[in-house]
């Protein structure tokens, strides 16, 4: 098939970018979306142009590196997948495809379609862990039984891959779903409850400092999350935060 | 506690609490208004009570006004922050794929309601204040019904009111249930809350609109 | 022992590690504050080592090419992590885990290392639970286990099909805690380009900031390489796109021996290649082989008809199908180890029975499992004479509960419904057992340069068992390296900070700059990927699942020629002074082009078949691997001597005092 691509090109963080049109022929339906871009890049290189830079690594939907806004949606038109799992059979011959980087003040563009998501790392550094020494000798793993549905719910929150689709999808570029996934995971588990009040306050403080927007509960993040992280996590974080703040 | 108002979550809770407060006020308001359709006498009594009871006048009224102000000021603050959080916009953004129009446009439904409140205050509140405290007119427990019906005589005012009630409906459609989520309530009752929200968001504005239309269509003939 | 001293402690196997820990030197907490450690790679091994060393008090710098430590490819491990906890009371023990690992590795690993791995394994689980890793649990609230290929006990802990992700995020969390404390400085989007030696000791690295293109010098008292495996040598693999051998290879060029490069694991159940455009292969978990039956058509005409789309697999009757694993290995059937299953698939496809359009795929069929589960369910729910459709529906639900996410992934990629038509699978490169040679302390042959996790060669011999990679990465990082590195660093308490303006750093940086300049000066027309794909084809066809002398020799020649062509002609657009993904790729492929040749040379030297290394000349009449313990019971450790062809072989003889060597048989 033949595609008309509109792709954001930007030399570096300090240069202004713009949308550039490309036409690509010979795309097959069993190619992945990123393989389609690979082919475009090979064409550009052979013409002596600079290829389009985009983030990607595992190409199996788990590392969370790939991050493209495709036709106005994070990770493209399909749900519950990342861009690297999106295949060209979701498109038709002659389609126009608009490809942009995640847009958020907290995610500045580094080059072309690559953004800097280190804000996410800093939110995690503010408290996304349980303060136990790794070199210590903790108690036996089975000392504290945990109800299966609690462990499963914690796991569902923990599946977040940190891709940033929630921020990209949110009209406010809010990072609530991302932050709440980690807060929830540890708030649910007995091991994490010990320092839950400090954790939620520290992580929310950092989240706000990074310049993400607020949550309007539109639910866009939940729909676009490739791992299906639930809005319940945001409610849980709100609860945790309120109780931590009120109790001081 | 000082951090409470600075954090994004706390601000959302302020929105939720003030919103819910305004919702309870709406219930009271619509109940009394409905009386104007059923029993002008009861409507007059209730209005008079509200207008001259010191508790209502000097405690509830300021709280209500504060509630409105807090809700819209906080709404603006959040909106400004949210806009700043995305400094460069997408050239293509397909919000309809993952969220409802009303949830994405609370600021617009809210602004229309705010503008409407301006008119509404002018129509009733300013009128009341002038009547009671500036012109120092004597108490008249029978005037309210006629005054109200008269307000809806002009076609343009009725249209503005009805349109505003539609926007109110949209605002409530998202806002009511959303306020529970903001306060951390998302559990087995959530589906019930959502269903109730939808009924509420339709029934209450519909009742308001009905009252406005009713009085427009049934003027008092002297 | 010669040049290779494994430094294995003496004494009985079970006491070695404890005794060693008691005897090695330690660094006191105050002095640790004066010692810097560089860790390259932030996966399970690097991340856990960084967190632990920082917690102990050392100043740690971590480097990763990804935009966050959380994205290291350990994240993609699906199945689980082994530990000899014996929670199931099924007779598991440290010895049994040790034994299974050595046997599974076809007796090509070091006893003492593997025993230590088994010994610390249960500590990993305790540690991870304390960190909040949400392992799967039973209704009683205790941890659940599943069983994995090639063993007789249930010792695999798991978190859905995302165990690697959860363990990595645990290590990432532990790192974050130390970053917040200021004890770790994390350099992301940075790539190590060279190792710097001062007076024969590893004292720093040259790294490139991948965003600004700046070349940076970083010094430390020790350097830990935890940079994973080199499977991307094959171009197509289940590795992440950026996974590379650069750090390990740079260290090799500076004097670290490279061990057993030809030991590669080829995983039998991956989604087949769909065309020339393919960039990456996706693994379907080994657990699928518990219920799926692998087959190809019995008649070649049927295979051709299926390939051309004229025949559907479901139209073939049982008699027209060849369940070749069940036929060849009646005892283990579809559950033979990975290397055996992979070779058998290749054998059928090479014989012309492949079932996809490229002829390189076999079926993995769940139809009989669906019917079996469906019948069971119908019985237990008290249905009387249910029809086939009802049974199928019930069975599909059970299969969905077990493998739903994998089936969904398959459907997304292939666009075929695996509940209705058999999956197509083919083997793909998945893990490399070879890597930098290390002694018992995980130190390479360069003093002060350590290698951990998949980057070293140590624990898996010639074939790795499922769920053991995660175990090894975390064991190295959390429980081994933090002790053993102290022994070396105890000599450095008075050294002080290592300056970066020394002639050694100058020289290393110049090398790096010259090399980059040379890469950028290519005058040809082909991109980096062109060369990488060519290399991959040579590797896959001639150094892949089965190897022979003739083809290995051809491979050596072809790779050397390709390398020459690459250095003269590779076309890299853009500039080296900014973000440049093509330049990044080029540096990595340049190293693969050297390693590839050494790989082939190693495979050529090893005149036996063992584990993942199958030499066609050394097989039984039935086509099974023929190991030669008399002549090849050693680790090949290659010393860099200029060109890969000149590499010098050193042998570390493997001594088995606690295990009797046997021929693996799965018949």
Question: What would you note in describing this structure?
Answer:
The complex is a heterotrimer of chains A (248), B (222) and C (667). Chain A is of the alpha+beta class and 248 residues long. Chain A is built from 9 helices and 7 strands. In chain A, the strands form 2 sheets. Chain A has a 5-stranded mixed β-sheet. In chain A, strands 6-7 form a two-stranded antiparallel ribbon. The longest helix of chain A is centred in the C-terminal third of the chain and has 16 residues, at 232-247. The N and C termini of chain A lie far apart (61 Å). Chain B has helices at 2-6, 8-38, 40-52, 54-84, 101-104, 106-134, 144-151, 155-182, 190-217. Chain B has 9 helices and no strands. Chain B is mainly α. Among the domains of chain C are: 268-429, Flavocytochrome C3, Chain A, domain 1 (Alpha-Beta Complex), CATH 3.90.700; 502-628, Fumarate reductase/succinate dehydrogenase flavoprotein-like, C-terminal domain (Methane Monooxygenase Hydroxylase, Chain G, domain 1). In chain C, the strands form 5 sheets. In chain C, strands 5-2-1-9-17 form a 5-stranded parallel β-sheet, sandwiched between helices. In chain C, strands 11-15-14-12-13 form a 5-stranded antiparallel β-sheet. The interface between A and C is large, with 79 and 81 residues. Chain B: Keywords: Membrane, Transmembrane, Transmembrane helix. Chain B: This is Succinate dehydrogenase. Chain B: One of its GO terms (cellular component) is membrane. Chain B: The chain crosses the membrane at residues 12-38, 58-80, 101-122, 155-176, 196-217.
